[in-house]
């Protein structure tokens, strides 16, 4: 098993100056909170998936996990409801000028494939740190690329071309529902 | 904090003889697996929500959680997509002849209220162990009861009357989508 995404970071977090260097995950979480508070959509991040091995009950009111292991996720990190539709996505950032297939598990791609077949809206939000750009890309296009190309990485140009640039704003930070709106409106 | 639901059970599981005494959670998980394998719907149980305090990295490939605490859930246990619709529910079983309000968190009721306002299908699956009956009841009806009654418990008769009995079968165990089908078809 590899290091679980985001775990190391949480324990070695750098000091933040006015959101400079804030992780994509933090930005998405803030965005979802904004959507929730403003009654726009109900999207939550799923808890980290763990296998519990040892749980102590030192007193009646408290249980402490003393041993647990990270599981490889079989679904994505985020899902929820927007205008009655089921939304499901994964958010990934990369330092590279391409999106490596290893950044997303096979199980997650299979899950997203299922989602879109069942009428849900499945996508991936990718942040390229080299240019500080965030893209929305349909999971079908990502799956299509991996199934029809031997390359282990999707070039930045493909995502720039096929995906949709999301403006980074003050509030909400990553307003990805603007893209979903275009899809629902039949404009994409 | 109270004992998190289902945790104790997992560590003190009784021997199962041909599913007699199998928990509602196990039955729902089997049902969801059946739906997934037969490509009917994609419904997953969310992982247990924990606050991680201490994580060890004994070697490159493995991370071990050494200290974590259970969080009060702010959403429900299950969600997913069926025929393009967003589904969200909680499953509870009780030994009583009523459904105590304390069995469900305020946050979870607020969450279900939001879900139905945003066009999702929110419900609760309740198993009454005294008669071995499982009911589907719309979360709106549960919320309505608690908001308009001073009682701290919903009587069995209310759920029998307003809810929908789900047959316990061999496969899938708790076929709750038959009720969702009626709702989608405008028959409920």
Protein architecture, described:
The structure is a homodimer of 188-residue chains. Chain A is built from 6 helices and 10 strands; from the N terminus they run ααββββββαββαβαβα. Chain A has helices spanning 7-11, 24-37, 106-117, 139-148, 156-162, 177-184; strands spanning 42-45, 50-59, 62-70, 78-82, 85-94, 98-100, 121-128, 133-138, 153-155, 164-166. A 6-stranded mixed sheet of chain A has the order 1-4-5-7-8-10, sandwiched between helices. Chain A has a two-stranded antiparallel ribbon with strand order 2-3. β3 of chain A pairs antiparallel with β3 (62-70) of chain B, so a sheet runs across the interface.
List the helices and strands and how they pair.
2 copies of one chain form a homodimer.
Chain A: H1 7-11, H2 24-37, E1 42-45, E2 50-59, E3 62-70, E4 78-82, E5 85-94, E6 98-100, H3 106-117, E7 121-128, E8 133-138, H4 139-148, E9 153-155, H5 156-162, E10 164-166, H6 177-184
Parallel strand pairs in A: 5-7
Antiparallel strand pairs in A: 1-4, 2-3, 4-5, 6-9, 7-8, 8-10
Question: Top keywords for this entry?
Answer:
homodimer, 188 residues, alpha+beta, two-stranded antiparallel ribbon
State the low-pLDDT regions of chain A, or none: 5-19
- Helical content class of chain A: 25-40%
Mass-distribution shape of chain A: globular
| Total DSSP E strands of chain A | 10
Oligomer, anyone? Answer: homodimer
